[in-house]
Write a structure and sequence with these properties.
heterodimer, A: mainly alpha, 2 domains, two-stranded antiparallel sheet, 4 strands, B: 196 residues, mainly alpha, 8 helices
Chain lengths: 365, 196
């Protein structure tokens, strides 16, 4: 029996092409957008993939999505005569595709609107305007600061910083992403033996510098704000923390919960220090009989759950992932020769603490 | 920066012309390195400046290491000329039809040679120069420098690659016509429009 002829002509309607492209643009989705032009794209007539099959339903808009203004303007754009001709040419061409810069620009802007910053930076980078767009957002941030609109200024700075590209990525440069769970470990790499050297206890200027350097992707971005007067930096930091961590309240609640345990721990450590001073306890045995299990609960309560790994860094890593700014308000604390925990530590004289609704903490002094 | 200087010109780095003698290479290298070390000692070294100083020192070492040896110097000059030639050829082909298979093949060839060039002359030989006896003696380069330099050089290499590409014709995207006043308005609108 002769084989079935599979070379029957496939037709992809223009309307479907428009809808799929408009959806990718409205969503600010560069992955789907590029996929639609690949050699095996379901939009190509020489591809065996079918855009109307269920597996590609994610490429087409829902009825609700079709009503959105972003989708409508994207649809208008893809329906423009010159753009439509270009799309058709590219979808019929063998070889490398040349994407339409008009579509890419609209996609990049929408990606910023949706806070899909890696997608936005990739699109701006392809258009070779990423750096200049960053500068525009920084400049807008400056304008907002001058007008006293702290929230908009913070948003502008954050967008500008998030459009950063990591040129040292391997093998190709990639959008840079904040990795607070790693950065927090670097921030606390050194055990602070001096109370006032803990990040939260630093003098306000130093605290602000550490905070902005940690929260922004690059020191160059942080220095744009650390150059400003402290009166500007403080509200800026408060807004930035709320923007980066919308669940900040949850962390504050956890800090409140651990206060009684912190109090017990500090009392215990203080009494041991006194006994060492009196010669009633050997310095080498300072942790003998200390109920470490009880105090590991400080890390657990701070994070809001128990981890199998009891080490301080495991808790800090997860805490910084869930509440990135939290790393600025905690410190490492030894509760035994081989056991450390993370514990809230900050100076309440710093006005930022009150503005962030953080409670007054017990001290060890 | 001269258009061709984006392809690391070690003659320019050492303030020399292409016909210079080995003696000139050594003389300029020692003087420039001495000046740099003096500058480092008299300035507050912030993290930004640290990277910049490290990069300048690495480039001076590499320039000296490559240009003082005839074989290395010739190989470097040839490789550099080849990248520049391929860029020119691709540009000419691209002007006729940027998306033709021939232009695409030339672009890939150019890209491969360029990456090899940057890897070799902006990373491998730079690190190798840091282990050269004479460079170590003059610059006090040590394992600590090398560890930091690996990161700085990789970053610089990719940035350079990106800078080179920004000068080239658009090939994966149609040439955008950007109206910067419209961009300013868009930025403002995005900001005040809030998250969708």
């Amino acid at each position: 029996m002769a084989g079935k002829n599979i070379s029957s002509t496939k037709v992809v309607e223009q309307e479907i092409i428009d809808l799929a492209l408009a959806k990718a643009i409205a969503d600010g989705d560069i992955v789907n957008f590029r996929f639609l032009f690949l050699p095996y794209s379901p939009l190509r007539e020489d591809s065996t993939e079918d855009i109307e099959s269920i597996k590609y339903s994610y490429l087409l808009p829902t009825e609700e999505e079709e009503q959105s203004s972003l989708f409508q303007s994207a649809l208008e754009l893809v329906s423009r005569k010159d753009i439509r001709e270009h799309i058709q040419k590219e979808l019929h061409k063998k070889g490398p595709t040349q994407l339409s810069s008009d579509l890419l620009l609209a996609l990049a802007d929408n990606a910023v609107r949706h806070e899909k910053f890696t997608s936005a930076s990739q699109a701006y980078e392809l258009l070779r305007i990423r750096h200049r767009m960053q500068e525009l957002f920084f400049a807008q941030g400056e304008k907002e600061l001058e007008k006293g609109n702290i929230l908009d200024a913070v948003r502008a700075y954050r967008i500008a910083s998030a459009l950063e590209y990591d040129y040292s990525a391997f093998p190709e440069p990639l959008p840079a992403v904040p990795r607070y769970h790693d950065q927090a470990l670097i921030l606390h790499a050194e055990y602070k033996t001096v109370w006032n050297e803990c990040i939260g206890n630093l003098p306000i200027e130093n605290f602000l510098k550490s905070a902005f350097n940690y929260l922004f992707l690059l020191p160059e971005h942080a220095s744009r704000i650390t150059n400003k007067p402290i009166e500007v930096q403080i509200p800026f930091l408060v807004e930035l923390i709320h923007l980066i961590d919308p669940e900040w309240k949850q962390f504050v609640q956890c800090v409140n919960q651990v206060i009684p345990l912190m109090h017990d721990l500090y009392q215990e450590l203080k009494s041991r220090a006194e006994r060492i001073a009196d010669g009633r306890l050997w310095e080498d045995e300072w942790d003998e009989g200390l109920n470490t299990e009880k105090y590991v609960a400080i890390s657990e309560q701070l994070l809001g759950r128990k981890l199998n790994q009891k080490d301080w860094w495991a808790y800090l890593k997860e805490l910084a992932y869930e509440h990135p700014p939290s790393a600025l308000f905690v410190a490492r604390q030894m509760i035994g020769k081989e056991q450390e925990i993370i514990i809230p530590r900050y100076n309440f004289d710093n006005p930022i603490m009150m503005q962030l609704n953080l409670p007054v903490l017990p001290t060890i002094k | 920066m001269d258009d061709e200087d984006v392809y690391i010109n070690y003659f320019t780095v050492l303030g020399l012309d292409e016909n210079c003698k080995t003696g000139d290479v050594r003389k300029n290298y020692k003087k420039m390195m001495k000046d740099l070390i003096l500058e480092i000692h008299s300035t507050e070294v912030t993290p930004d400046r640290l990277d910049q100083y490290l990069l300048t020192m690495a480039k001076l070492n590499a320039g000296f290491y490559i240009l003082r040896d005839e074989n290395r110097r010739n190989a470097y000059v040839e490789h550099r000329k080849k990248v520049i030639r391929l860029e020119k050829e691709w540009r000419e082909k691209g002007e006729q039809d940027a998306s033709s298979p021939e232009a695409d093949q030339l672009r890939r060839e150019y890209d491969r040679v360029l990456r090899d060039f940057l890897t070799k002359y902006m990373e491998e030989l730079v690190l190798e120069a840091g282990r050269d006896k004479e460079c170590v003696e003059t610059s006090n380069w040590d394992a600590h420098h090398e560890r930091h330099a690996s990161r700085v050089l990789r970053h610089y290499r990719q940035k350079l690659y990106s800078q080179i590409h920004e000068r080239l014709p658009y090939y994966d995207v149609t040439r955008p016509h950007i109206d910067w006043s419209e961009r300013e308005q868009t930025v403002e609108q995005i900001l005040h429009g809030g998250k969708v």
